Amino acid sequence: MHGISGDIIIVAAGTLLLLCIFGFVFFFVIAYNKRYRLYEEEKAELLRKFELEKLNSQLEIQEQTLKHISGEIHDNIGQILSLVGLQLSTLPTSNEEKREHTTELLNKAIGDLRSLSKSLDTDRITSIGIVEAVDYELQLLEKTGNYKTNLQIEGDFEELTPDKTIILYRIVQEVINNIIKHAKADSVSIFIGGNKTESFFTIKDNGVGFIAGELINKGLGLKNIINRASLVGGSAKIDSLLNEGTTITFNIPKT
After folding, report:
1. I want to staple 132 with a disulfide (CB 3.0 to 4.6 A). Which of 22, 128, 178, 248 is the partner?
2. What is the chain's mean pLDDT, rounded?
C-alpha cells in the first residue's frame, strides 16, 4: 500500500511539474508574442515618424526653392519680358497685324508668369489665407476654358495657421494637377468647412474615376497627398468610381 501511495505521489508530482513547465512555456510564448508585437508597432511608428520628418524636410526645401523661383520670375524674367514688349512696340513693321499678335502672345506669357509667381510665393499664400489662395487656383483653372469650377465655404470654418495653410494649399495644387493630367474632367468643385474641432476640405471632379485602392498602392501622387495631410495631424479619404469621378476629403484638427 505504501508503495502504491508513493507511486501516486510521484505521478502527481510529475504531472504537476509537467503542468508547471507547460504553463511556463505557454506564458513565455504569450509574453514573447506580446513583446514582439510591441516591438513591431514601435518600429512601424518610428518608421512613420522618420518618413514624416523626411517629407517635412523635403517640403521645407521645396518651399524655399519655390520662393526663390517666384522672386526670380517676378523680379527678373517678368521685367525682361516687359522690356521686350516695350521694344517691340517701337520697332517699325510692315505687318501691323503680326506685331499685334506677337504683342498679344507676349502679354499672355507675362500674365502667365505673374500667375505662376503668385502660386509659388509662400509669403503671399499665408498672408491671403487658404480660402483666397484656393479660389485663385480655381480661377486659373477656369481661365483655361476647359473647366467649370465652384468654391463653397460651409460651417464654422476658421483660417488655418501658416504651416497648415501652405501644406493644404500644396495638397490642393497637387490634386488639381492630378485632375488635369488624369481625370478627363470638365468640372471641379471645392468645399471648405469646419466645426469646433476640425476643418475639412473636399475636392470633387466629374472625371473618369479609378479604383482607389489600386492607384493608391501604385502612386500617382495619392500616397504623397495622404502623407502631407499627416504632417498637420490630419487624414485624407479618397473615394472614386469608374466613369463617375473622384472625391478627396481632408480633415485637419484645429489644435
Report:
1. 128
2. 76
